[in-house]
Amino acid sequence: MKRVNWGSSEIQVPAVAMGCMRMADLSAGMAAQMIDTAMEEGADFFDHADIYGGGACEERFCEALKETKIRREDIWIQSKCGIVPGVMYDFSREHIIASVEGSLKRLGTDYLDSLLLHRPDALMEPEEVAGAFDELHASGKVRYFGVSNQNPMQMELLKRYVNQPLMANQLQFGAAHSSMIQSGLEVNMMTQGSIDHDGSVLDYCRLHDITIQAWSPFQYGMFQGVFLGNEEFPELNQKIQEIAEKYSVSDAAIAMAWILRHPARIQVLSGTMNPSRFRQNCQAADISLTKEEWYGIYMAAGNILP
Question: pTM higher than 0.85, yes or no?
């Protein structure tokens, strides 16, 4: 498995990580099989959030890990906090610390390798975030920190106060959700794609050595559905299938390889809880699309080259 640098550190993490949002749907035995599959593929990075399954996903992961022979120190466990479902976002010091304590208990571990702030909180007071990060880092409960779905100025505001570097930004990205690419290619034009929805976050993360973690790589819109095999995307699926046949891999592997081909050292989260599909997805890390193939997929998704 190809590995990429984690943020500004020299630590390397797998290019494909396992997203555990649906792990609560599995039995402990099946979840253990998923964890073992990930380790066999070199994908030793597991992404959680305190809200996934209302906490049940972290609990199931803990149960499953006990059924394996894997040592805690041989895996990377990441969780996220800040969302109070259906109510608000909360980046207060008390909420962050309480969320981490809850995740640690459910995961059965003394520390998180990384903690991300889960989406922006409009009422965030960065001094409180800094206090929480300092306490969690000093106690050894969290090693590294990052954010999700935040733009450059939101990260700059945080960086003014927090003492730890922001190592990652988890963002939705894929062939059918590529505004980060469109706005760069269609700059200085009056086209729909030229609208910068993200504040040049892709370039910002590259400039500041922040790892982009691509979530929902097969989705289009905001949870509108999966584009693979979707009749609404005939040209895109035809192009991906054509390239998949060339490399003798699945369509999903090519869709993920498209993301990994970008030089931003992106890490892709695979959310499938099917061992066979996960293995297929991991093949993406071994494929380096040509520029022509990459742009071919980009245009087949309905984008333009000015």
Answer: yes
